[in-house]
Amino acid sequence: DRRVARIVADVRSGGDAALLRYARKLDNLEGGLEIPHSEIRAQAAQVPAAVRAAIKRAAQHIRAVARKQVPKGWLLQVAPGVAVEQRVTPLDRVGCYVPGGRYPLPSSLLMTAIPARAAGVQEIIVACPRPEPVVLAAALEAGATRVFRIGGAHAVAAMAYGTESVPRVDKIVGPGNRFVA
After folding, report:
1. Is the pTM higher than 0.90?
2. Residues in CB range of 138: below 8 A, 6 or more apart
3. How far is CA 108 from CA 22, 117, 168, in A?
4. Distance between the two ends of the chain, CA-based, in angstroms?
5. Cα-based distances in Å from 97 to 75, 100, 105, 168
6. For the chain, the helix, strand and coil percentages under 3-state DSSP, each to the nearest 5
7. Tell me: the pLDDT tens digits for 37-59?
8. DSSP assignment, residue 83?
């Protein structure tokens, strides 16, 4: 807890400088924090066609369920001139955390980003410390807005508070270890 609290405080106060320091030390980051769209497309194109087709099929299934789950707003006239309304409005920006451990987890990206997109979220930020091409293919299919090569507590802190490079999000979703939880 103390170690995570220190990382979060460092990123909150130090912004990109602290984030880069932790990303280089803990994620072995080489290069920039954000993956350009051209690189995402190029790496996703390396994924075998059959795997890309499976990602597309899984995304269609997840999207169908997610669309059905979106709550609907309503308006009720309870008396003449008196109305009660429930409005359902999406968050502006959601952060999806995708672990980058021993195995790539495109399913984690699909199962977090697609429901956000189905709910109407306009910006979907993905944090994954070492995104494999299959994860980047899932990011494209899910409609991720931006992808960052960061993980752990420093990635969560960057999305929670924002830095010069990573925008602050309204909600963070996804699985993770004790440093992420």
Report:
1. yes
2. 55, 59, 106, 107, 109, 110, 113
3. 23, 14, 21
4. 10
5. 36, 9, 11, 14
6. 50, 15, 35
7. 999 999 999 999 999 999 999 99
8. E
